[in-house]
Amino acid sequence: MNTMIPQSALLGEAVAFEANIPLLWQPLQMPLGDVQLMSLNRENIGALQTMQFIDEYFPGQVDDSDQLNGDLARIEFKLNLLMELFGKWLQANSVQPEQRWVKMHSRGLEWIEVVPLIAPIPIGSFGILTLHLEPKYPGAIRLYAQVVDESPLPDEAFRLAVRFEGLAPNVQNWLDKIVFRFHRRTIAYRKQQTQRDCA
User: Fold this and answer.
1) What percent of the chain clears pLDDT 90, i.e. is strictly above it?
2) DSSP 89
3) Superfamily in which the 18-193 domain is placed by CATH
4) Which one of 42, 55, 142, 194 is most buried, counting C-beta atoms within 10 A?
């Protein structure tokens, strides 16, 4: 379901991006303890650093005005191709959550559900949100979150909003970088689409 998510009080004017990504919400019966949060933060910092490394090492644009840059471009293309093939192989041999249309910033996330829930998700409840953000990286981040809003949308869909909880400072810092990077990509894509429409 490719649709814009209405602006909400959760996001406000924060830097955010919208995308269609694999997402899984796992409700919790009780809040996580300190030991569980530490383990989750360690897991997430590794995944976020890997995603940032992939983006920096394979920027997609290399100035090949000289021989050295041309050689580097060819090497990066080959490595990029290998990573994409490896990622597709992992995805084919693992089960990913269904894709959802999301709006995300570094403090929370909203997503659209298009099928009726088996059980209601009450405001104030906690859960684990699994997100596959980077197509070139088959791994996921798992964020501890609290439901802060739920509202109906047309066509029997509804919007859920959660606020991330228990993020360690270093995880929050890396998440800020990832969200800002995706935000810039969204702006660049929209500019390209506008230029094509005007051509």
Assistant:
1) 32
2) H
3) predicted glycosyltransferase like domains (2.40.10.220)
4) 55
Residues found in the chain: 199
Q: Which DSSP string do the residues of 19-80 spell out, in sequence order?
A: EEEEEEEEE-SS---HHHHHHHHHHHHHHHHHHHHHHHH--S----SSHHHHHHHHHHHHHH
Q: CA of 26: how far to CAs of 75, 124, 144, 177, in Å?
A: 41, 14, 10, 25
pLDDT digits (tens, 9 = 90+) for 93-126: 556 788 889 999 989 999 988 766 556 688 999 9
Rounded to an integer, the average pLDDT of 116-137 is 81
- The answer to whether residues 138 and 83 touch, using CB atoms and an 8 Å cutoff, is no
Query: Which H or E run contains 173?
Result: helix 169-198
C-alpha 17 chain-centroid distance: 9
pTM for the full model?
0.73
Residues 6+ away with beta carbon under 8 Å from 181: 52, 55
All structural domains of the chain with their residue ranges: 18-193
